[in-house]
Amino acid sequence: MAVLQIRRTEDADVPVVACFVQYLLDELSGATMPGDAAVLEPIARDLLQSGDAIGLLARWGETPVGVMMLNPCAAIYAGGRFGEISELFVLPEWRSKGVAAELLKAATTLGAKMGWKRLEVGAPNQPEWSRTLDFYCDNGFDEVGPRLRRLI
């Protein structure tokens, strides 16, 4: 009988990671900027192999159903080292089945082992993505305001 398993990604998982991140980008953009997961593969491989990112993969038996990417960070305000969730994607047919919550539990356990003081995440635009914000708040996150960016 298949069960949900969460594990760190391996080299062989890079195509799945890239594909799921592309699904996420397509969903967030409303597919107005469709991309190619193959373009993301070398980026994912580089970040994962360098340790600049950590991937967690959710599988139901042999079937990948979700992915979470974490970035090790550090800041004085955060009390030192912490983790940032940069991407979280669960296949639509697997949503509301506890997959994302299990990925969060695995990230929390991993973060504790790494000495992280907290996990942070940037929620997508509100109110369009209010369900995402509600999910994080329901799972112990506090809303602290929007995140901004400047491209360089």
Task: Provide the succession of SSEs.
Answer: EHHEEEHEH
The total count of strands amounts to 5
Proper CATH architecture: 3-Layer(aba) Sandwich
Structural class of the secondary elements? alpha+beta
Poorly predicted runs of 5 or more residues: none
Beta-strand proportion: 25-35%
Tell me the number of helical segments per DSSP (H or I, 4 or more residues long). 4
- How far apart the termini lie comes to 49 Å
- Average pLDDT figure: 93
Strand order of the largest sheet: 1-2-3-4-5
Q: In this structure, how is the largest beta sheet organized?
A: 5 strands, mixed
Let me know the CATH homologous superfamily: Gcn5-related N-acetyltransferase (GNAT)
Structure, explained:
The chain has a 5-stranded mixed sheet with strand order 1-2-3-4-5. The relative contact order is 0.14. Strand 4 (80-90), helix 3 and strand 5 form a beta-alpha-beta unit. The chain is built from 4 helices and 5 strands, in the order βααβββαβα. The termini are far apart. Helix content is 36%, strand content 26%. The chain is α+β, with helices and mostly antiparallel strands.
